[in-house]
């Protein structure tokens, strides 16, 4: 491709609305353009990257027996009602009606459609296992579409669904996909980590892993063990309860006046006690249920754990100050577990029962209790692991300290079990003629998000530094002079030669200063740059530069094509 003909509108300025580097660079390097919030057009170079990632994903799926299909994006509401998700998926689901006023949605994921397909086609255990996948646009009306391709409202996902006859089969399919995902992200040249994850809205109880590309700008926090292979999304990571001090209570619980005190920080300062002695008491509500939730003052409540344990389908929310006033008779800052209204369920994080000589709200404006003993002075109905893990804590598996990193979720795998097959009746007959539900798994790769993640991990102050396997083109030829016929003719010859060797190459033949072309080449991030200047070429040499290391070397023009080819082959081996 000739750069003079390429639709590659590069920009010097950082677009005002682009907050993260990958978004800035994708716009500046002319890979994407925005149509509306969370909706983008891929320009030629952006599309090439997308297609390359798709190709890697496809190869790894096919290699493990995945069969590619293509399902409709628009899905009938009836199926979603059958699975029970129509009402619980919420505002993220794009809903629409046809001319007969029948309800549809734009698929955010395809469990319903695929389970409907399989229930119609599969009869016998002999047809299992079945691995079906597609690579297609997904639609989610995200609360905050942002960061370019990172969180779009339309995005490209590969979704594979596995159907097995039993748990052992599911385990095998899951392992296959787990391994495939490791290969995919390694082949894309990314540094990533699989972590234990929460299944979220997809559901299922059999376990889940997320694949995180490690980058400081990542929206997710992960913890990993410094001693063993344990790694988990911070929101999922289980915690070991830790007692802080073992001080026996000196006496009875006492009511103290705490004027103006509202927050944990306030009370800690006012009474000059560490936050570890405070009981944080929060009122949560969902549907008809209300819970008083307790965690130690220095800890953060993990709402995902809370919801998984108690919320069911309706997610629990922090009660409004008005509701708190109505139920507890005080503002949120004075709530505590002592003498709570009859029937109010009290749930506590596992560290709370270990607290002696604690401080808590007194359910009376501007008052707290001190010297409170859990169990003696207040009841707990249920003890659960409800807090966020913290870096430095001991790993539950081996005891070594946990470390924290930021990550971008580029894929997730789920053991669904029979959640969807039971709801929709996707059954088969086993050897004995007994009807059973298919045991399912589902596996998603955020293909478009992977582009953004790759850039977050691979860039410098001049632009993108593509890993070779997903670069839009592997090599750019820059003519430093467009007046010198030797330069122009040799550039054209090398360009043809590289193409005939199968190298993906562009020739920057624009009538621009060399500096402008260099800047664009760095911004777009071609892994290799070949420069032809009058002086070096007079000696039969051209300059070959690696984008990543910045290393340059002079190469004989006649050896150039072969050398480039060899470097690319080396970079693609992994
Ligand atoms: P997130 O927590 O980031 O919203 P998710 O867990 O809801 O993502 P999944 O249902 O697991 O997403 O979808 C599979 C993959 O699709 C994700 O791992 C992610 O890479 C990608 N993905 C999900 N939502 C988006 C989005 N809005 N834009 C781009 N990619 C997305
Ligand atoms: Mg996910």
From TrEMBL:
GO terms for biological process: prolyl-tRNA aminoacylation. Belongs to the class-II aminoacyl-tRNA synthetase family. ProS type 1 subfamily. Its EC number is 6.1.1.15. Transmembrane segments: none annotated. Residues 38-467 form the Aminoacyl-transfer RNA synthetases class-II family profile domain. Homodimer. Catalyzes the attachment of proline to tRNA(Pro) in a two-step reaction: proline is first activated by ATP to form Pro-AMP and then transferred to the acceptor end of tRNA(Pro). As ProRS can inadvertently accommodate and process non-cognate amino acids such as alanine and cysteine, to avoid such errors it has two additional distinct editing activities against alanine. One activity is designated as 'pretransfer' editing and involves the tRNA(Pro)-independent hydrolysis of activated Ala-AMP. This is Proline--tRNA ligase. Consists of three domains: the N-terminal catalytic domain, the editing domain and the C-terminal anticodon-binding domain. GO terms for molecular function: aminoacyl-tRNA deacylase activity; ATP binding; catalytic activity, acting on a protein; proline-tRNA ligase activity; transferase activity. GO terms for cellular component: cytosol. PANTHER family: MITOCHONDRIAL RIBOSOME PROTEIN L39/PROLYL-TRNA LIGASE FAMILY MEMBER (PTHR42753), PROLINE--TRNA LIGASE (PTHR42753:SF2).
């Amino acid at each position: 491709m000739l750069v003079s003909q390429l639709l590659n509108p590069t920009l010097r300025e950082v677009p005002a609305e682009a907050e993260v580097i990958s978004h800035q660079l994708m716009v500046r390097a002319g890979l994407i353009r925005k149509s509306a919030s969370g909706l983008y057009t891929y320009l030629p170079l952006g599309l090439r990257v997308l297609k390359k990632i798709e190709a890697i994903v496809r190869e790894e799926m096919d290699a493990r027996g995945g069969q590619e299909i293509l399902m409709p994006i628009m899905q009938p509401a009836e199926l979603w009602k059958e699975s029970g998700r129509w009402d619980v998926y919420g505002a993220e689901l794009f809903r629409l009606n046809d001319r007969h006023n029948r309800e549809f949605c734009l698929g955010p994921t395809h469990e319903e459609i695929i389970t409907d397909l399989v229930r119609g086609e599969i009869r016998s255990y002999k047809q299992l296992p079945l691995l079906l996948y597609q690579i297609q646009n997904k639609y989610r009306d995200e609360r905050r579409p942002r960061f370019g391709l990172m969180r779009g409202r339309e995005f490209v996902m590969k979704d594979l669904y596995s159907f097995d006859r039993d748990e052992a089969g599911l385990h095998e399919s899951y392992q296959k996909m787990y391994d495939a995902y490791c290969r995919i992200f390694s082949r894309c040249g990314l540094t990533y980590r699989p972590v234990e994850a929460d299944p979220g809205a997809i559901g299922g109880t059999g376990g889940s892993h997320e694949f995180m590309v490690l980058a400081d700008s990542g929206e997710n926090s992960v913890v990993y063990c410094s001693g063993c292979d344990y790694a988990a999304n911070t929101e999922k990571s289980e915690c070991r309860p830790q007692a802080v001090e073992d001080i026996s209570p000196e006496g009875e619980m006492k009511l103290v006046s705490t004027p103006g005190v509202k927050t944990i920080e306030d009370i800690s300062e006012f009474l000059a006690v560490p936050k570890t002695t405070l009981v944080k008491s929060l009122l949560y509500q969902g549907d008809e249920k209300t819970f008083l939730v307790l965690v130690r003052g220095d800890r953060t409540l993990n709402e995902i754990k809370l919801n998984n344990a108690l919320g069911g389908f309706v997610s629990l929310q922090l009660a409004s100050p008005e509701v708190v006033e109505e139920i507890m008779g005080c503002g949120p800052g004075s709530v505590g577990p002592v003498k709570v209204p009859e029937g109010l369920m009290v749930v506590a994080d596992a560290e709370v029962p270990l607290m002696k000589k604690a401080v808590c709200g007194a359910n009376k404006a501007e008052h707290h209790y001190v010297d409170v003993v859990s169990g003696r002075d207040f009841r707990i109905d249920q003890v659960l692991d409800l807090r966020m893990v913290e870096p430095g804590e001991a790993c539950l598996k081996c005891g070594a300290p946990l470390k924290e990193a930021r990550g971008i979720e580029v894929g997730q795998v789920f053991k669904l079990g029979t959640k969807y097959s039971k709801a929709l009746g996707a059954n088969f007959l086993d050897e004995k003629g007994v009807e059973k539900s298919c045991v399912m798994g589902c596996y998603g790769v955020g293909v478009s998000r992977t582009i953004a993640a790759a850039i977050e991990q691979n860039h410098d102050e001049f632009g993108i530094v593509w890993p070779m396997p997903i670069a839009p083109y592997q090599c750019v030829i820059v003519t430093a002079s467009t007046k010198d016929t030797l330069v122009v003719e040799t550039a054209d010859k090398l360009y043809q030669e590289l193409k005939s060797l199968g190298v993906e190459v562009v020739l920057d033949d624009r009538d621009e200063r060399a500096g402008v072309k260099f800047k664009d080449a760095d911004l777009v991030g071609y892994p290799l740059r070949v420069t032809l200047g009058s002086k070096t070429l007079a000696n039969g040499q051209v300059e070959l530069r690696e984008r990543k290391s910045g290393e340059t070397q002079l190469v004989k023009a006649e050896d150039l094509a072969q050398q480039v080819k060899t470097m690319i082959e080396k970079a693609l081996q992994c």
